[in-house]
Amino acid sequence: MLKLYNTLTRRLEPFTPLNPHKVGLYVCGPTVYDRAHLGNARPYTVFDVLVRLLRTTHEVTYVRNITDIDDKIINASLQTGESIETITRKTTVFFHEDMAALGNLPPTIEPKATGHINEMIEMIELLLQRGFAYAQDGHVLFHVPSFPNYGTLSGCKCEEIIAGARIEVAPYKKDPTDFVLWKPSTSEQPGWESPWGRGRPGWHIECSAMSFKHLGINFDIHGGGQDLIFPHHENEIAQSTAVYGIGTFARYWMHNGILLVNGEKMSKSLGNFITIQDLLSQARGEIIRFALLSTHYRQPLDWTNDTLMQAKASLNRLYTALEGFVGENLQQIDQDVLRALQDDLNTPLAIARLHELAREANKKEKGQAKEEIQARLKASAAFLGLLQCSSEAWFKSDCTQGLSSETIEELIMQRRVAREAKDFKKADQIRLNLEEKGILLLDSAEGTSWRRK
Ligand SMILES: [Zn+2]
Hints:
It is a single chain. This protein is of the alpha/beta class and 453 residues long. It folds into three domains: 16-260, HUPs (Rossmann fold, 3-Layer(aba) Sandwich), CATH 3.40.50; 282-396, Four Helix Bundle (Hemerythrin (Met), subunit A); 405-452. The protein contains 16 helices and 15 strands. It has helices at residues 38-54, 71-80, 84-101, 117-129, 158-164, 203-215, 229-244, 276-282, 285-293, 307-321, 335-342, 347-363, 368-383, 391-395, 405-420, 424-436; strands spanning 3-6, 11-14, 22-27, 59-64, 133-136, 139-142, 179-184, 199-201, 218-225, 249-256, 259-261, 264-265, 301-303, 439-444, 447-452. It has a four-stranded parallel beta sheet with strand order 4-3-9-10. The radius of gyration is 24 Å and the shape is globular. The structure holds zinc ion. The site of zinc ion (ZN) has 4 residues, from α7.
């Protein structure tokens, strides 16, 4: 029986999905203006483990969006001179590369905000019709005092919010807590025609519209980092339940704890900002994944200078126990590992069990009994997205997740040269070779981008 901690009720609850065979899960995805950082990697790795676990018993629709319209993206474009399209396309590719390197499986659906503008406009119109929103100076705002249930997720009272808030007070707001659903765009800014003039959506309405489109009025789990509880998730709840009624929207809310770097909050101004790309230049993705899963997801994770070294030492021990193992039987997942995960995703306990299995394997002489334990260790670790290569390859450091980005870029260039020389046979061969290694090429008018399958 799976138990999950529900932020909404502040309790550990047995998980019972709406449909006994299916689970719908929405996780707030990245805003694609810059390289993903360690704080982003944590929720995506945590929810990847949840999806793997749910898939043992249910058909899972895992929706993780891409926010490709946001003021941060507009600012990045102004700063770098690159077009918004280039920034979002490039950053999305980087994000997919980072996720693949960390061993996170792709979501079932990855909706882009810019592909759902009509759905957002429709939802805003409903909020206006029902009296939860008002239009003012090209803006549309959600009127927080019109929604008495506001604050149930975060436990925030409106007065406290105002007192402690960095909430923008603006002349077009009736109340300081009101938040933007739609805002006007200048002619240089990206924008869409709407009943309120040319403009663009606020961030919160994006997730309400996309989760409704892909998971419906009611769905099972909504996840994200604790930093999203207020105001983002609170505002998502207000928007969606104002339209569809109290009791609709997500039933279980899951939030991972914050990420610290040497005991401090990670921020660009403190100079302790770590991107996944930085980490991948120091360690293999599996080591980073192991480190992320070594702390329970609801606890704060303090990333210190020793974290990667410790994770690597642990993985070395586990891989040592797999020495000589060539078996392919990956069916046998250890019941204690499963039980640990079913207890609100207790990954540290699951990892402790992997170490126990490793110790048992080490005690045995070469033979069938040893192989059985090794098979169980390998299968259980694989379930967590760990111990993905052979012991031999691991210790030879051969065990990268496919080709390096540089090699891929180089092959794409060779393919372009071949195409320009009308050598389509060679160009196709390069594409097929890459595809065999799990690299998909995407051709467009701007050139060729790629992603890992
Ligand atoms: Zn969201």
